[in-house]
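Shall we go through a protein fold together, starting from nothing but its sequence? Label the sequence line and the structure token line clearly, so we can match residues to local backbone shapes. Would you write everything just below, so we can both look at the same thing?
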Amino acid sequence: MRSPLTSFVQSAVSRATKFLYRDFFELELSRSSKAIRNTFLQKSKAKAIDALKAELQKHPDVGVISEGVFDKSSESDKINFSINVVDSEDNMARAIPLFSISVLIYKVLTNGSIDSIAVIIEFPILRDVYIVEKSRGGVYLKSDSSSFSLKLKTSAFTVPDLIINDSDVVLEDAYEARKFGSISYALCMLASGKVDIVLPKEVNQHFFAIINFFVSEKLCHIISEEPMILSNGNSTIKI
């Protein structure tokens, strides 16, 4: 059973970003120029960020709500949220459904360190949610029903950052592997055992904290930091 805090955040994400489903299909049907599509996307993203912050502010113990930058000045008894809205702008602009809204819930301990509590990653078009709670591991939940889903939907678009599905990989060949636009999709596929190795690119503070949280929950392993290489433990890699 999910905690009340996790349920609150999942509901907040769903309410705040429900309109993205409509906006996505407007982009899919649009024949506008790339510049016009990107302008539409940025307005849609800004609206989602404002709406999500407004929903999270309703929590009685809310502390800091930030976009990927952790504020260690928050009081230790406060609940803080690091958010990332539309982790792959390119995918959404091109009407590819592999993008997410992610929220990392954390507290700031008295020594100034970050204590991650849970991560909610929602894929608004796929209608899937991946939730990881501290000491509970990860689970998929269908956002439009009460039943659990064993995996994210896949389609002809199943191509996030970088994934490899071979048991023995030579790094110099890895960059010829399947490319996805979404680091969150890649991480969820890795954690669920659907892919074996992920080479994420341009990991910001938000996703670096999520990766470390996944590692602490034994959902993946960091086998190299430069370049960053993540494994689910089922593969070996030659560097």
Remarks:
- The chain has two domains: 4-142, 162-238.
